[in-house]
Amino acid sequence: MPQSREEKLAKKREYNKTYIKKKKYGNRTSKQRAKDNWTQRGVDMTNFDEVYDLYINTHKCDLCDKIFENSYERVLEHNHTTGEVRNIVCRKCNTHKEDVSIRSDNKTGYKYIMKVKGKYKQGFYYRFEIKRDGKTFTKTRQTLEEIIVIRDKYLENNKDLYK
Ligand SMILES: [Zn+2]
Question: Which pTM was predicted?
Answer without folding.
Answer: 0.49
